[in-house]
Design goal:
about 140 residues; alpha/beta; 6 helices
Length: about 140
């Protein structure tokens, strides 16, 4: 498949212990829906759930799912979202370089569906900041 987008989401799960590891376990053992995504990022680690060359169901549209790599940022209450934000920007920089894409290929769930996701990043008007961080890591 042709990757055209990196699609940013937030787990919107603020429960204690809702880490990348716990989301990985949910996807592999408890997910009863078609919802899936490629990566989950928290302040300590990144889990890769679905191979990039496979379609995951995260963007709510055929275009977003078919051509997008879905990345979920954890927002759990005891997590360090600033570090999660940083780790995700490094991952996105890597993926953009890997697929020969530019920062114009960074999209949000909201871009495809109108859903308020990634909620905190949108609410706090941080998407431009995220893209700037990604650009800085692409130059390293």
């Amino acid at each position: 498949r042709k990757v055209r987008y990196i699609v940013i989401h937030e787990t919107d799960n603020t429960s204690k212990g809702a880490t990348a590891s716990n989301h990985a376990e949910y996807l592999s053992k408890n997910n009863k829906t078609s919802t899936s995504w490629h990566y989950t990022v928290d302040e300590k680690e990144i889990y890769h759930h679905v191979p990039d060359e496979e379609v995951a169901h995260h963007a709510a549209t055929q275009e977003g799912n078919q051509y997008g790599i879905g990345i979920e940022l954890c927002v759990n209450e005891e997590g360090d979202f600033e570090k999660t934000f940083e780790n995700a920007s490094k991952l996105v920089a890597y993926l953009l370089k890997e697929y020969g894409l530019t920062t114009k290929s960074i999209k949000t769930h909201n871009d495809f569906s109108g859903k308020d996701c990634p909620h905190n990043i949108l609410k706090n008007d941080r998407m431009d900041e995220f893209v700037k961080k990604v650009k800085s890591y692409m130059q390293k």
